[in-house]
Design brief:
443 residues, alpha+beta, 12 strands
Length: 443
């Protein structure tokens, strides 16, 4: 049976660490179980001898600790300790042990999103959306406090009975503050590159919360499709994909992804930060809004008879992405409209787009013809009124043959038209003046 007092449990060895590091950590913590590697650290289940509670202890690898630096690590850990949110794993303690750095967090029971995806490969929207919502709530809170995660990935998302929780706050920020060039010189990667934003992959220091939106969109892409949005055989190949390539639409990889979810994810992983959502809350609202449509160029699936890899720009008229053929223009003919000065274009009925808009075009044509008929009737009424007002002046006009008093105005009824063409309204006969009485001849 295990000892009743947690402090009496025998410690375990710290594999790969120098004996003096193990001794320095053993003064404060008793290591109970090695949980394996997480990021650039080794995770242990431990017992805090000072506060008398169980914790999760992360001991940074020596090369990572050297790249970060103790000063930068301490500054960012103090900032991370100020975060208090139910979806963020709190940091209780941190410190340095000779050439190594460590930090302790609350113990969390659950599995990482990485382990879940390894087992199930992908998740249905009903299960993925609550995870995205919890992570977005944590990110939104941190962004409002002026902090960004900068290393969001499935391995940093813990799935617990109380929902999804984010870990590793402060570590990735400390690495960026230490300088990306320093880490490259040491041969280290800034993170799992398929979730890094393009501005991070290119080494830009101006990284904001929209980088977290890109990472969350990439995680959502993988959860729903079972495949990473950006893939490659090496970290450099993946970084090149992140910076230059446009991944397939999520609905192309997994047809069950709804159109509005597809559009929201594509907006979140836009190359330019300004093309992404302004906040993670806006991203979640788009995922839950069935009427959301992307404002960027989206790669769409096309029928077999159409040109492959064609792209369609929604609402923005943006050009096709680099490396993809532009849509092939279809032939069109010009058909004259009624006297409005507007020309109509008809497209061969084989196009699905034309079949969709033809009824609307026909309705608009009927409306234009009805409006023209009303205008013509009003014009006739004005002409008759003008003739009545000019009656006295017409008394001096020369005699004309007798005829009907006021001829009827003939207006033809609108003729039904085919959906693919517009017929001009028929001509309208103009009224003639009534009989005029000649004055008596002079004596």
């Amino acid at each position: 049976m295990p000892p009743a007092n947690p402090a009496d449990r025998p410690p375990i060895a710290v594999p790969g660490d120098a004996p003096r590091v193990s001794f320095a950590i053993a003064v404060r913590y008793r290591l109970d179980e090695n949980l394996g590697a997480r990021g650039r650290a080794t995770l242990y289940r431990a017992y805090d001898l000072k506060t008398k509670r169980d914790v999760m202890l992360c001991i940074m690898w020596p090369e990572a600790a050297e790249a970060i630096g103790a000063e930068s690590f301490e500054r960012e850990m103090k900032a991370a300790q100020t975060l208090d949110h139910p979806n963020i794993v709190p940091i209780h303690d941190f410190g340095s042990a000779y050439a190594s750095l460590y930090y302790a967090t609350s113990p969390v029971t659950g599995e990482t999103l990485t382990a879940r995806l390894k087992r199930d490969r992908k998740l249905p929207l009903a299960l993925a959306l609550p995870i995205i919502r919890d992570v977005a709530a944590a990110l939104q809170y941190a962004h409002e406090q002026g902090q960004a995660h900068r290393d969001l990935k499935p391995d940093a998302i813990l799935l617990t009975d109380d929902g999804a929780k984010l870990t590793d706050w402060g570590v990735s920020v400390a690495m960026w503050q230490a300088g990306t060039s320093r880490m490259r010189d040491m041969g280290m990667s800034m993170g799992i590159t398929q979730y890094l934003s393009p501005e991070q992959a290119t080494g830009e220091h101006e990284v904001t919360g929209r980088s977290d939106i890109f990472a969350l969109g990439s995680v959502a892409y993988e959860m729903l499709t079972g495949e990473a949005a950006f893939r490659g055989s090496t970290p450099h190949a993946i970084a090149a994909q992140v910076v230059m390539a446009t991944p397939p639409s999520p609905s192309q990889v997994e047809p069950s992804v709804p159109p509005h979810v597809d559009a929201a994810i594509r907006t979140a992983i836009s190359k330019k930060p300004g093309d992404r959502f302004a906040s993670v809350t806006a991203f979640v609202e788009a995922l839950e809004n069935p009427f959301y449509t992307s404002r960027t160029t989206v790669k769409m699936r096309t029928p077999a008879s159409s040109t492959p890899s064609a792209s369609i720009a929604f609402e923005s008229g943006a050009p096709a992405p680099t490396g993809e053929p532009a849509p092939v223009p279809r032939p069109s003919t010009q058909v004259p409209r009624p006297s409005t000065g507007i020309s109509a274009t008809t497209t061969p009925s084989s196009s699905p787009l034309v079949r969709a808009i033809t009824p609307a075009r026909a309705s608009m044509a009927n409306l234009l013809r009805a409006s023209a008929s009303l205008l013509q009737r009003a014009s006739v009424a004005l002409d008759v009124k003008e003739l009545e007002l000019m009656g006295p002046a017409l008394d001096e006009a020369p005699p004309t043959p007798a005829g009907p008093s006021v001829p009827e105005v003939s207006v033809l009824a609108p003729t039904p038209i085919m959906p693919s063409r517009v017929v001009a309204p028929p001509p309208v006969t103009t009224p003639r003046a009534g009989p005029r009485v000649a004055p008596p001849p002079p004596p």
